[in-house]
Design brief:
Layout (H helix, E strand, L loop, with lengths): L5 E5 L13 H13 L2 E6 L2 E2 L8 E4 L13 E4 L4 H4 L6 H17 L2 E4 L2 H11 L6 E3 L11 H10 L5 E6 L8 H10 L6 E6 L5 H10 L8 E4 L4 H10 L2 E4 L8 H8 L4 E4 L2 H7 L4 E3 L4 H13 L1 H15 L4 H16 L1
Parallel strand pairs: 1-2, 1-4, 4-5, 5-6, 6-7, 8-9, 8-11, 9-10, 11-12, 12-13
Antiparallel strand pairs: 2-3
Length: 339
């Protein structure tokens, strides 16, 4: 019988309550224990919860984490190479640091985990990683379905007493807030809906400036939030008419999968990685064409049958992604790294 593995999983890059990729290591640790019996040692920086000799390998789930403990075999996760694909979105110093971190990580790792075929291709083409060292292991939804009380609380907090669209504005231009705002401008003012824009605190000034530049500063139907806990985001996403995700670049597109798992229709970019994740369960639009986005938004509001079909296809698609699957496939990569 194959003995259970013990893996040091690095949490050094993580803060407190988080969403998206920041939750990935925690969900993975839970699923590894539940689905595979892998023993996970939670690691922060250079401090191991137990002697280093008692783990079989080290997994850095964010490749730019501190690189210590390299007496053990190493597996790293690289979620995207957007700093190479869209260099204009990163300050030169940050891009240099990420590029050097990636170089060190993939040079030292026995196996490299990518969440999508698109990211795997970028690793081969831009980082020179041999195909046999790359394993594509998709992510899984990190948000928990909200209960009725949570739904009511967030509606009251943001005064969302009617239909609303949700857009995760983010800190990067690739999230295409400008396209969302231009599409919003094209909607008939009589349509009974609001636009909820979620963004981290450090992006709020840029988002406000874009709203002003679009001539929408006085639009009472626009709602701007700050940082949201995962529970609040789930309660909002669960009630939205649709998630607007016309991003110009992604390594996976986790919010698309999150929305589908909650039964929320998704209007997303017609780019390869989002088609890989969403398949035919998303309404695909050209991210450079706000007219297409506006038309999809109108249809989502006015065609409940279409909206319901998107929701059902999304739920079915999301069932292909689970943390148990992610854990099993990750465990197989661990064992391959030790062969």
């Amino acid at each position: 019988m194959t003995r259970p593995l013990r893996v040091a999983l690095d949490l050094a890059a993580l803060g407190g309550e988080a969403t998206g990729l920041q939750l990935y290591p925690r969900r993975l640790a839970e699923a590894l224990d539940r689905a595979t019996g892998v023993g996970v040692v939670l690691w922060k920086g250079s401090e191991l919860a137990g002697p280093p000799t008692r783990v079989d390998l080290v997994h850095h789930p964010l490749f730019f984490s501190p690189r210590v403990g390299l007496a053990h075999p190493l597996v790293v996760s690289v979620h995207d190479l957007l700093f190479e694909e869209l260099p204009e979105e990163y300050p030169p110093r940050v891009r240099r640091l990420l590029k050097e971190s990636l170089r060190r990580a993939v040079a030292q790792a026995r196996r490299v985990l990518a969440p999508s075929q698109v990211t795997a291709h970028e690793l081969r083409q831009r980082a020179g990683v041999a195909a046999e060292r790359i394993a594509v292991v998709p992510l899984a939804p990190t948000l928990r379905p909200p209960d009725p009380a949570q739904r009511d609380q967030v509606r009251a907090r943001y005064a969302l007493y009617g239909s609303f669209f949700l857009h995760l504005a983010g800190a990067f231009p690739r999230k295409n807030l400008s396209g969302v705002l231009e599409a919003w401008r094209r909607l008939p003012p009589s349509l009974p809906c609001r636009l909820l824009m979620c963004c981290p605190r450090d992006a709020r000034r840029r988002v406000v400036q874009q709203v002003q530049a679009a001539g929408l500063a006085g639009d009472p139907r626009l709602v701007l939030t700050g940082y949201l806990t995962s529970a609040t985001l789930a309660a909002l996403m669960d009630q939205a008419v649709a998630l607007l995700y016309p991003s110009r670049g992604e390594g996976f597109g986790l919010p698309v999968l999150e929305a589908m798992s909650l039964g929320t229709p998704v209007i997303a970019s017609r780019i390869q990685v989002l088609r890989e994740v969403g398949g035919d369960a998303v309404a695909a639009v050209d991210p450079a064409d706000p007219v297409q986005l506006a038309a999809a938004m109108v249809r989502a509001l006015e065609d409940p049958r279409w909206r319901s079909e998107l929701a059902e296809r999304g739920r079915a698609r999301a069932r292909d992604f689970s943390w148990e699957r992610t854990a099993r496939e990750t465990c197989a990569v661990y064992r391959a790294a030790l062969d």
